[in-house]
Amino acid sequence: DIEYSDFCRDCEHCFGCVGLKNKEFCIFNKQYSEEEYWNKVDEVKTKMLADGEYGEFFPPEYAVFPYRLTVATSFLGFRDYGTAAKYGYDTALVEESVEETGGEKVNVSELPSDIRDVKDDILEKVIFDEKNSKSFRIIKPELEFCRRYGLPLSREHPSIRMQKWREGFEINLMFYKRTCDRCNKDIETSYAPERKETVYCEQCYQAEVV
Length: 210
Ligand SMILES: [Zn+2]
Prior knowledge:
By secondary structure, the protein is α/β, with parallel strands linked by helices. The mean pLDDT is 90. Among the domains are: 2-50, no CATH class; 105-155, no CATH class; 176-209, no CATH class. The chain is built from five helices and nine strands, in the order E-E-E-E-H-H-E-E-E-H-H-E-E-H. The structure holds zinc ion (ZN). Zinc ion binds at residues 180, 182-183, 185, 200-201, 203-204. Residues 180, 182-183, 185, 200-201, 203-204 line the site of zinc ion (ZN).
């Protein structure tokens, strides 16, 4: 009973809302009475249906960020910029703003490999990632974290780390037909049939795990 909404928790009967908690009868994050809500939602949906919009995803021209910077690109098969452009997404390359930063420069190749050899003054320095030609800083909580777990400082600019992290996910939005590994019922799952994990139907999963 929640439509065209995202990041809403413990909500019921909401339309076009973002980030609400424990709410009901909201449209575009605005609270309505139950009666107002149904009238208003009826009106909106009727108009959307007439315009052929209802059930469709938001139009690309409403996308706030260029396609290449969105989370869509972390999904398997969605890094095809040609196809995205055909659908009307802005797939232009994104120029990064390069801010001049003050402080003594140190190349990543000169960073100590043992965190115990890293001194506190690293927090004042500008670290240069030679491979990616990007500068970054280490912040205090990051240094404390590395010290606590005995980890070396990263050799890569955070944006490169994020990119690798997203690519590593290879989040798959495809659904495959499989049979439950316990009761043999036909199911649809994001686990491809050739994958070796044991996959249960919802009922068997609930019985086994919960
Ligand atoms: Zn089953």
